């Protein structure tokens, strides 16, 4: 049980860190022209008064994923302290919340990717996704791993019996 829980904490912490860094940085999309370059993210700057609707969807589901990841990691940490957690239920709930975080982030990244991919291209401007965008995609398998490992910790843990009540 302990190796699964420890690995779940590691994977979840890395996934949560990647989500927070991806959401807080402005290097999701880069455009390079003949004389200059520019980068943008999911948070509007002063020049963007009304961002497109897909930006709001990406922001909402990204923040939801970060919050779910934080709750999942908190529950896993609490499950390490027997007096603070419900017997055997901490890893199970942490697993469900980690899977919810991965699903929310998948929705956010899929919406952003599909909308940016379908935008018209200019012949003199080269556009591509940047490192914040890829960090968002990397965090999905990490959160899925945290969910799977915490589910493994739950399944391999001791079952409460009549004596535990």
Automatic annotation (TrEMBL):
Its main location: membrane. The chain crosses the membrane at residues 7-33, 53-78, 90-113, 125-144. It is a multi-pass membrane protein. Keywords: Cell membrane, Cytolysis, Inflammatory response, Lysosome, Membrane, Transmembrane, Transmembrane helix. The keyword RNA-binding does not apply. GO terms for cellular component: cytolytic granule membrane; plasma membrane. GO terms for biological process: defense response to protozoan; inflammatory response; killing of cells of another organism. It is found in: Cell membrane; Cytolytic granule membrane. InterPro entries: PMP-22/EMP/MP20-like, PMP22/EMP/MP20/Claudin. It comes from the Eukaryota. Belongs to the PMP-22/EMP/MP20 family. Regulates cytotoxic granule exocytosis in effector lymphocytes, thus acting as a critical mediator of inflammation in a broad range of infectious and non-infectious diseases. Essential for cytotoxic degranulation of natural killer (NK) cells and CD8(+) T-cells and for the activation of CD4(+) T-cells following infection. Plays a critical role in CD8(+) T-cell and NK cell-mediated cytolysis of target cells and contributes to the cytolytic activity via the perforin/granzyme pathway by enhancing exocytosis of LAMP1-carrying lytic granules. This is Protein NKG7. It comes from Pteropus vampyrus (Large flying fox). The gene is NKG7.
